[in-house]
Amino acid sequence: MSEDFYDVLGVSPDASADEIKSAYREKATEYHPDVSDDPDAEEKFKKIQKAKQVLTDEEKREAYDRMGHDRYEQAEKHGYDAGGGAGGMGGDPFGGMGGGMGGGGLGDIFEQVFGGGGGRGRQRPRKGRDLRTELEISLEEAYEGVEKQFSVERPEACDVCDGEGHPPEADARTCPECQGRGQVTQVQQTPLGRVQQTTACPRCEGEGTIYSETCGECRGEGYVRGEATLTVEVPAGIQSGQTLRMEREGSPSPEDGPRGDLLIDVAVAEHDEFEREGDDLRYRLPISFPQATFGDTVQVPTLDGSVEFEVPEGTQSGETFRLQGKGMPRLRGRGQGDLYVKVQVVTPDSLNEEQRDALEAFAEAGGDEIEVNEGFFEKIKRAF
Ligand SMILES: [Zn+2]
Ligand SMILES: [Zn+2]
Fold it and tell me: What PROSITE patterns is this protein classified in (predicted)?
């Protein structure tokens, strides 16, 4: 059972330090084991203290927001310094990144987790559905990390009724079905005896109130299909198939709870020059026969500008060289992969007369007898 620290204190995730402190005082008074008659008071009081301890420490709060509740607790259990940079603790590297990327994502829709409405008392309102979308980025963007703007179709609060589902002037009355409790209890006779079942009231959908009019725009749902433009922080080193999570950017809750999350499946586009294998890159370097023979200094492109590369004397076609640390950054700043340069000796497909003579002389000097077919290249070309 995990409980978000903001929920525990009943504040929104963008609450100020003062708001958090005063919420703490209020809750602590309410659940102090000496005064409260709640059977779980001691347990709750501990949670309240814990939440306050984390959320009033700027560094810890930042880490908490970045990692999300579960990952933060896990990290703390493992003695990980919550103030530090990366939480590279095995498994899915993105599980807890929501807060860090979300930035503006936290906060807006999150006002009413406690006492969220009507006759439901302290029951925690259901979270909205998670949504999923895809995002394509270039290899360069995966190399640098990028702040990417994108749009996503998702339900948005209805403008016309402000998400209420009914016009503001509609008359409200207590639901006659549940007498405003929001819940109905059904008793059934079964062979095993009487079974009592409590469910949300079907008439008012758990609200306890019914209205004389329903909003025509959203047919009482409170939300309509819309499109949101969001910005996600894509970390350097991300790979195709990995998923980012933006907390509370999914569907709105049907009952004043927090939104669901938005899951973003990242695809890194193929690149013209580099082939990626995990954190390593592969590059094919064409060189001439004389360069391969004598060695040369050439420029090799990397994603961070070109670098000088020494082709050693006597390089064979197909030989591969490793440029350490010139590959992709590893996620969360733990070094960099390598760039593998595969040399390809290019055989010329046309020669001028001087080159031809020189090459024939070269062959002769080595003792090779070659029967040179003068018209060879022209013939082949015509054939195609
Ligand atoms: Zn009702
Ligand atoms: Zn509406």
Answer: DNAJ_2, ZF_CR
